[in-house]
Amino acid sequence: MDWRKEQEGPYDRQQGLGRTTVLLVENKEVTACLLAFVLQKNGYRVIHSNNGAHAKSVMSAINPPDAVLLDRALPDTTGLELPACMRTQEHWHRIPVAMLTTNADTLDPRQAVGLGGNDSILKPVSPTRLATRLNRLLTGMRAFLLTIPQ
Amino acid sequence: MLALNHSDLTLRLGSMAVLCIYSAVILLLSGILLLRFIRLAKERRRRKVTEIWRPLLAQCVVEVPETLPELTPQEHLVFLYLWNHCYESIRGDARAQLNELARRTKSDEFAKQLLRARRLRWRLLAIVTLGHLQERSIWNELVAMLEADNAFLSLIAAKALLDIDAPATVPLLIPVISRRNDWSPLKVVAMFGTVGADIAADTIAKAACQASPEIGSRLIRHLAATQSQQGLPPLRALLREGTTSDDILAACLFLFGECSDPRDVATVRAHISHPTWYVRLQAASALGKMGVEEDEPRLITLLDDEHWWVRYRAAEALSNLPWMTAERMTQLCGELSTIESQEHMLPFMARSNVRKAGPLPSVHPRAQAS
After folding, report:
1. Domain count along chain A
2. Can you tell me the ipTM of this complex?
């Protein structure tokens, strides 16, 4: 499967262009497929990357998405390295990052901010909660960007 | 004539040996080819089922499609792996949709058949699936599996029972946890993950009270991982009886330090002069975490303990006291009567000084000045 391709589901085509894009960095294929479906169902366009190295190459190849959903436990990198890498890139440093964490490494949102993210979402994920949290994160970031003078 | 017969026999034996070797090689090659073919077929089947069912499973999180593809028994195995993975990746109402999908594909019936399979991994798959489906009809079989020789099988059965009915499972689990020394305490703590920290702490503490000192002390030490104080009351009651072993006592003191409940300070203080060195050690460490100002002289007294590790932990505990500053530690060290006790304080004084000074400069100040 070519992971560089955007994952387009049945709901994608109904929504048209100009939709909110989410970069999903998740190595487990079943979980990634599930999250992608839930996001697409909620009107997001999803770009999937299945490891840290690929996510980095995606960062240099595509326009910045509106948000990043990042699994904290990736096989080739820590969840901390990618946000740090993003914050150094010109167009990526203000992209909101939600970190997917497990019970073992539960982060509260304040800790997530300390680690370079903007929010943390506990796995296993509740589909409705995921959409709500992502929406809140994006709304908060848009409101923040409006306060910055051009 | 005899020589000719002899060579004839040798020739015949030789050709038979060659024939046998050729046959063995051909058999071996055929075996390898067959295994390779089976593996490829399995891989193809896995890929096919994944391609068909992965999007369907994702869709089921929202709604179960009206028509579903048929599954052969071999495909059903792959489907069950996918279904369980999917089930564990989500929470909330979406799990009910996945359960409906499993019932419609008759996965509950299939899993019940697998429960009697000879292969362990199939049985494990069946137990996990039926646990997720909260299938009550296999309750008795799962209870019997708690006593299985295989620790992994019994742990998975316990987890499935908790998934089916946690309140009914807890009383069953207490004696089993206290008896089984092949169950990893960490796995036991993790098993209660979905049930709740308070139930986990209470169950494990009660099991520890009934267990042998060896198992009980291991369980108590891992109670801190539940991050619940619900396990403390049964242990306090156990200590009040006064008949506990030193291993259990030391583990309880460790836990009291981790939980730092002020109600346990008196118990910790009472064991500061216990005859067993590792009980004194745990009491010293716990006092470092939960002690108040009046405990400082107690820890200073332990700096002259006969056992090296007790002296070391007492020094560490002193350095951990919240009001202990670098200056106070230096003053304290000067007041100590023996060189040995002063030596124990030195590494912690150095650490405290480093913390106070902040991160080391990248260039040595002298080099910078020159």
Report:
1. 1
2. 0.72
